[in-house]
Amino acid sequence: MIIWVASFPRSGNTFLRIVLKHLYGVRTSTVYDVDGVAERLGPELIGFEKRPSSIEEMRASERPHFVKTHRQRAGEEDRAICLVRDGRDSITSWARLNGAPDFEAEVRRIIDRRDTVGTGSWGRNVLSWLRPPAPHRVPLRYEDLIREPRRAVERLVATLVPSLRPLPDARIPTFAELRQLDGGFFRRGHTRTHADELPDELHRLFWSRPDNAAAMELLGYPRDA
Q: 225 pLDDT exceeds 70?
């Protein structure tokens, strides 16, 4: 079976993969041919593995295969962890990670994405995984993941793959430890990062997108949060 580890970029996907690796010994592949994050941070920390076979073969296997994706859901009905974060924080963090010389132009470019395939815009991406709701697509909020990673992930795994059990000597790296490893990647690690980084004009542009507004309302993030 496949369990998608699905999110818009910079929503905590890498930390989730690290928790899965250290808590369960689970290794994750990606839907992409190259895992740039594993190359940057080290495959052992992430728990990276190359895809052992095609998506269809992995889907048909009795073994659970955890596969990272930032793509919009395109009709897949596999099990999925749907990791979500306040969209304003995600786009701000992604723009910073991209290192573009003009930060505000990069944020605008991300907000203005119109792709119907691939990553797409934040709102379209989130809604594709959460709508329609399904018991085999389980949402995980970024704030819950960073506050209580063990409890949050154990709850998900018990729902999606109840045969898995935590390792008896499991220890999850702290964010401070991860920052020491790569402070450019593990940048701030908390909520409301947009509050002191996202200009008012871009904040309004973000909310002007109907898909963003619908996804934010669905997740319960108010405009003044």
A: no
Q: How much is the average pLDDT of 102-118?
A: 95
Q: Is pLDDT at 39 greater than 70 in this prediction?
A: yes
pTM for the whole structure: 0.95
Taking every pair of Cα atoms in the chain, the longest distance, rounded to a whole number of angstroms, is 50
Residues 6+ apart with CB under 8 A from 36: none
User: How far is the C-alpha of 133 from the C-alpha of 218, rounded, in Å?
Assistant: 11
| DSSP assignment string, 9-70 | TTSSHHHHHHHHHHHH---EEESSS--HHHHHH-HHHHTB---SS-HHHHHHSSS-EEEEE-
d(CA 218, CA 123): 10
Q: How many residues does the chain have?
A: 225
Q: Mean pLDDT score of the chain, rounded to an integer?
A: 95
Contact between residue 11 and residue 92 where contact means Cβ atoms under 8 Å apart: no
d(Cα 87, Cα 122) in Å, to the nearest integer?
6
Paired tokens of 211: 């898909």
Task: Label residue 197 by pLDDT band (50, 70, 90).
Answer: confident
CA distance 141 to 152: 9
Sign of CA dihedral 25, 67, 189, 160: negative
Beginning with the edge strand found earlier in the chain, give each strand of the sheet holding 28-30 in spatial order: 28-30, 65-69, 2-6, 79-84, 137-141
- What is the identity of the amino acid at 86? D
